[in-house]
Amino acid sequence: MDTKSLIINIATTLFQQKGYKGTGLNEILKACDISKGSLYHHFPNGKEELLIACLQSLNEEITKDIVDIFDRYPTTQEATIAMISKLIESFETDGTLTGYTFSSMVSEMASLSDPVRNACAQLYQEIQDIYMEKLVADGFSKDKAQSIALMMTASIEGGMMLCLTQKASEPLKVISQLLPKML
């Protein structure tokens, strides 16, 4: 793995675990075993630029995973159940959803920085677009599909946050039962 990818991977984990403000540059440098000069070589604008790179990396992973699942199932209902089941399994196995959500970073930073807010908005829009395309393929009008995709995104993201705060998979299990019935 190249140095830039290493920095992004480690910083992403630290930001998810401790938050943007709770993760210092020195902590990232130590965890990556690199110098400050090396970090600034790859991220000349510092920590905020690194956060945006982390969000983009998470986006690639999350959307690839969603696309893979949605391509394997013929309907939005089946794909949604499979995707939420995967989240539940991950949570019950690992005790966390690190790698599947960036909500904690969004809530902490989106109101403080337009570049971060824009990166977050783009990430959520890409997720909604995946859902919308599947819903249109299921026969929903584009307008109705956009509304349902927004509701799906909000429900699933909210469910993940509730799982993390309650330290239980029950919120996603409830969403897995109810959300497909609404489609």
Q: What would you say this structure looks like, in words?
A:
With 183 residues, the protein is mainly alpha-helical. It has one domain (51-182): Tetracycline Repressor, domain 2. The protein is built from 9 helices and no strands. The protein has helices spanning 3-18, 25-32, 36-42, 47-72, 76-94, 103-109, 114-137, 142-166, 170-178. Helix 5 (76-94) runs antiparallel to helix 9 (170-178). The radius of gyration is 17 Å and the shape is elongated. The termini are far apart. 30% of the residues are buried.
User: What do the pLDDT scores average to?
Assistant: 89
> Which residues sit in consecutive blocks of at least 5 with pLDDT less than 50?
none
Q: What helical percentage do the residues reach?
A: over 70%
Radius of gyration: 17 Å
Q: Given the structure, what is the number of helices? A: 9
Q: Give the percentage of residues in beta strands.
A: under 5%
Written as H for each helix and E for each strand, in order along the chain, the element string is HHHHHHHHH
Quantity of strands, as a count:
0
N-to-C span: 42 Å
How many domains is the backbone divided into? 1
**CATH architecture descriptor:** Orthogonal Bundle
In CATH, what is the class? Mainly Alpha
The CATH topology, please? Tetracycline Repressor, domain 2
Q: Profile the largest sheet.
A: none
CATH superfamily: Tetracycline Repressor, domain 2
How would you classify the helix and strand content by structural class? mainly alpha
Global morphology: elongated
